[in-house]
Amino acid sequence: MRKRSALGIIFHTLISIVILLAAVWLINYISGYFQDESFLQIVDFLNSNLQFIIAVFLVFFLGEIFSIFMFPFSLIYPIFAAVGGVMTVSFVFSVLELINRLFNLGFYGKVSSFQPLITIIVFVIVIVVGYISILAEF
Predict the structure, then answer these.
(1) Alpha-carbon gap, residue 51 to 72, rounded angstroms
(2) By C-alpha distance, which of 136, 16, 20, 129 is closest to 81?
(3) Is residue 86 within 8 Å of residue 107, measured between CB atoms?
(4) Using one digit for the tens of pLDDT, what is the confidence trace for 96-128?
(5) Residues 6 or more apart in contact with residue 73 via CB below 8 angstroms
(6) Is the dihedral of CA 56, 129, 94, 34 positive or negative?
(7) How many Å apart are CA 59 and CA 80, to the nearest integer?
(8) How far apart are CA 73 and CA 67, in angstroms?
(9) Calpha distance 31→80 (Å, rounded)
């Protein structure tokens, strides 16, 4: 597997965050012209979770930066990747809750009970796979 450079990782992360911010700005701009309640709830959801989404970007960014270091400095990257995975699971469940609220589906109560289990499974799998990939290179 080809490793990316630190400059490439930084550039990719910055471009991704700029695109995210531009998309959120555009959606906020458009929301001034639409009065659809569902659309406004989605815009509110994005605005209220913007800091969390950027934090997820930054956690994965730190994981990628540590992944390009040589052993033993790369040992921390699976931890960042696992924390990013847990944060992503949390965000996905927030999106599911929003969908449930928008369409009044009534499934979120059943699905949300699996969140702790899924979070633990994701954390463990990402940690194990991360350390296996480090040991495979070593």
Answers:
(1) 31
(2) 129
(3) no
(4) 999 988 888 888 888 888 999 999 999 999 999
(5) 66
(6) positive
(7) 6
(8) 8
(9) 35
CA-CA-CA-CA torsion for 57, 119, 136, 59, nearest 10 degrees?
A: 20
Q: How far apart are CA 125 and CA 122, in angstroms?
A: 5
Q: What is the 3-state secondary structure (H, E, C) of the chain?
A: CCCCCHHHHHHHHHHHHHHHHHHHHHHHHHHCCCCCHHHHHHHHHHHHHHHHHHHHHHHHHHHHHHHCCCCCHHHHHHHHHHHHHHHHHHHHHHHHHHHHHHHCCCCHHHHHCCHHHHHHHHHHHHHHHHHHHHHHHC
The tens digit of pLDDT for each residue in 7-60 reads: 888 999 999 999 999 999 999 999 888 888 888 999 999 999 999 999 999 999
CA distance 63 to 76: 7
Geometric angle at alpha carbon 110, from 104 and 111, rounded to 5°: 90
